């Protein structure tokens, strides 16, 4: 059964080779005349006056956390969905309860205003 | 020229196994790269027509060689490394975006069990690979150490992960009805005597729409392309990229678009199955039988439709505002998908939809 996954590994390797080859070719064929102006970060003609790794809106962070929660839920639902045909009523009711809990959390997040982007 | 051919012969005769393996592997990836080139040409042509322009028409017949010319131009351009960037991560980012988007093609079937890897967990692997792409985006934005790149990467990452959830739930609903993670089995589960009315788009219509819209948002394409909103943040996460690394990002984006265009028919529109399957019973000749028996031409026709829909959206819709995108993803799509997962469960349990009938 694992032999089916060998092409996946080969695909990973070959796409890595293609990517590296493209970048190496680009570096070899292209000219290289760096100047201070050319290498400065693009800021619409302004001088970049501080490091770009600045503070950013906390909502991005919030979205990332919510994503982890919901993506884990999906990871839980995946195996259930695969064998659902064999589980019958018990499976349906249990997943209904699981989704209900998820919805309660979702409603809470919504009411707290974590999904607002005005 | 003769010396190149001689060198090729020498390589093949000295390393037969290695040559064979390389040849077999380049076999699926080279068509993908050519497909990307043709798709870029088609996009520019269609948008040209929609703008009442000619589109590319100078390089090669009908401008077909335009994309190849662009690629060679990009490869010959200087690769600029921004002074404050983290060089290693700066070069790692395009690779990290490219590798998963190419590796995902290993499990795409173009016929019954005709895939490079007929893996049992095909759909799970696809979900994993499409999720990996976001690392490339965020790495590119961070490593560039440029304000626009950073903001673009933030926006893009938040948008991609938001739509990932809706997409994940729509995959789950397909799984419930098909009962298998194997993509080939998922297509076979849509076979039946009622032709196109046996496909999953009918019981899962909201999920089908959500899947494709999420796919458009996931690949950062118009109307959800705020990640590279030209008027605000110039080009988004790849603003500092030039030459070959930019070409790699470009390749990734279009390979991902074609991947989404392949998955939509495989999951919801019966893949290579014919829409009139079971309506016509005849044996005429192999070159017309596929019209009612199904075959890879149907898959490619459906893929062509979705790929063109991408272009059509881009030409037709104005760009969404960022808060509207997040509202659509979180407040519209996710509630609908959660409800429909349960509805799909009921459909399966009460036997309203039978797989592979």
From TrEMBL, chain A:
Keyword Membrane recorded: yes
Subcellular location: Cell membrane; Membrane
InterPro entries in UniProt: NAD(P)H_OxRDtase_bac/plastid, NADH_UbQ/plastoQ_OxRdtase_su3, NDAH_ubi_oxred_su3_sf
Protein name in UniProt: NADH-quinone oxidoreductase subunit A
Gene encoding the protein: nuoA
General function of this protein: NDH-1 shuttles electrons from NADH, via FMN and iron-sulfur (Fe-S) centers, to quinones in the respiratory chain. The immediate electron acceptor for the enzyme in this species is believed to be ubiquinone. Couples the redox reaction to proton translocation (for every two electrons transferred, four hydrogen ions are translocated across the cytoplasmic membrane), and thus conserves the redox energy in a proton gradient.
GO cellular component, one term: plasma membrane
Gene3D superfamilies xrefs: NADH:ubiquinone/plastoquinone oxidoreductase, chain 3
Keywords: Cell membrane, Membrane, NAD, Quinone, Translocase, Transmembrane, Transmembrane helix, Transport, Ubiquinone
Domain of life: Bacteria
Record carries keyword Transport: yes
Pfam families cross-referenced by the UniProt entry: Oxidored_q4
TM regions (residue ranges): 6-29, 60-81, 87-110
From TrEMBL, chain B:
Predominant cellular place of this UniProt entry's protein: membrane
Described purpose of this protein according to its UniProt entry: NDH-1 shuttles electrons from NADH, via FMN and iron-sulfur (Fe-S) centers, to quinones in the respiratory chain. The immediate electron acceptor for the enzyme in this species is believed to be ubiquinone. Couples the redox reaction to proton translocation (for every two electrons transferred, four hydrogen ions are translocated across the cytoplasmic membrane), and thus conserves the redox energy in a proton gradient. This subunit may bind ubiquinone.
InterPro entries for this protein: NADH_UbQ_OxRdtase_su1/FPO, NADH_UbQ_OxRdtase_su1_CS
Family annotation (Pfam families): NADHdh
UniProt record similarity statement: Belongs to the complex I subunit 1 family.
Subunit architecture: NDH-1 is composed of 14 different subunits. Subunits NuoA, H, J, K, L, M, N constitute the membrane sector of the complex.
GO biological process, one term: aerobic respiration
Residues annotated as transmembrane: 20-42, 89-111, 123-144, 156-179, 199-217, 254-275, 295-313, 333-352
Sorted UniProt keywords: Cell membrane, Membrane, NAD, Quinone, Translocase, Transmembrane, Transmembrane helix, Ubiquinone
Annotated membrane topology: Multi-pass membrane protein
Catalytic activity: a quinone + NADH + 5 H(+)(in) = a quinol + NAD(+) + 4 H(+)(out)
PROSITE patterns: COMPLEX1_ND1_2
Cellular location(s): Cell membrane; Membrane
The organism's place on the tree of life at top rank: Bacteria
The protein's Enzyme Commission number: 7.1.1.-
GO molecular function, one term: oxidoreductase activity, acting on NAD(P)H, quinone or similar compound as acceptor
Gene Ontology CC terms: plasma membrane
Record's protein name: NADH-quinone oxidoreductase subunit H
Stored NCBIfam families: PRK06076.1-2 (NF004741)
């Amino acid at each position: 059964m694992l032999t089916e996954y060998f092409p996946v590994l080969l695909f990973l390797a070959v796409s890595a080779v293609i990517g590296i080859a493209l970048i190496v070719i680009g570096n070899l064929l292209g000219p290289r005349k760096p100047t201070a102006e050319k290498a400065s970060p693009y800021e619409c003609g302004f001088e970049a006056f501080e490091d770009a790794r600045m503070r950013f809106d906390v909502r991005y962070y919030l979205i990332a956390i919510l994503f982890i929660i919901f993506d884990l839920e999906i990871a839980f639902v995946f195996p259930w969905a695969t064998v659902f045909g064999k589980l019958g009523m018990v499976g349906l009711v249990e997943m209904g309860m699981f989704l209900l809990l998820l919805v309660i959390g979702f409603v809470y997040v919504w009411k707290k205003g974590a999904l607002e982007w005005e | 020229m003769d010396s190149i051919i001689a060198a090729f012969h020498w390589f093949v005769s000295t390393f037969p196994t290695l040559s064979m393996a390389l040849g077999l592997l380049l076999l699926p990836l080279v068509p993908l790269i050519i497909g990307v080139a043709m798709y870029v040409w088609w996009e520019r042509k269609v948008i040209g027509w929609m703008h009442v322009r000619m589109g590319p028409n100078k390089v090669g017949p009908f401008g077909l060689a335009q994309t190849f010319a662009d690629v060679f131009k990009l490869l010959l351009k200087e690769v600029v490394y921004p002074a404050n960037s983290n060089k290693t991560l700066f070069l790692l980012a395009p690779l990290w975006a490219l590798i998963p988007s190419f590796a995902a093609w290993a499990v795409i079937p173009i016929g019954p069990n005709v895939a490079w890897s007929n893996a049992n967990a095909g759909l799970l692997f696809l979900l994993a690979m499409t999720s990996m792409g976001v690392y490339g985006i965020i790495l590119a934005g961070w490593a560039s150490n440029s304000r626009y790149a950073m903001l673009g990467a933030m926006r893009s990452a938040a948008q991609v992960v938001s739509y990932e959830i809706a997409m994940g739930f729509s995959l789950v609903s397909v799984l419930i009805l098909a009962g298998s993670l194997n993509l080939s089995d998922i297509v076979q589960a849509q076979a039946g005597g009622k032709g196109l009315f046996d496909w999953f788009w009918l019981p899962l219509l909201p999920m089908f729409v959500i899947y494709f819209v999420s796919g458009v948002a996931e690949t950062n394409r118009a109307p959800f392309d705020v990640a590279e909103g030209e008027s605000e943040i110039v080009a988004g996460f790849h603003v500092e990229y030039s030459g070959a690394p930019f070409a790699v990002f470009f390749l990734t984006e279009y390979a991902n678009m074609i991947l989404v265009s392949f998955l939509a028919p495989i999951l919801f529109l019966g893949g290579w199955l014919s829409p009139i399957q079971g309506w016509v019973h005849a044996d005429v000749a192999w070159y017309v039988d596929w019209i009612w028996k199904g075959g890879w031409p149907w898959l490619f026709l459906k893929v062509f439709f979705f790929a063109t829909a991408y272009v059509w959206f881009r030409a037709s819709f104005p760009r969404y505002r960022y808060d509207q995108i997040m509202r659509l993803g979180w407040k519209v799509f996710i509630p609908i998908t959660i409800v429909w997962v349960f509805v799909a469960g009921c459909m399966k349990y009460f036997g309203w939809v039978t797989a592979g009938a």
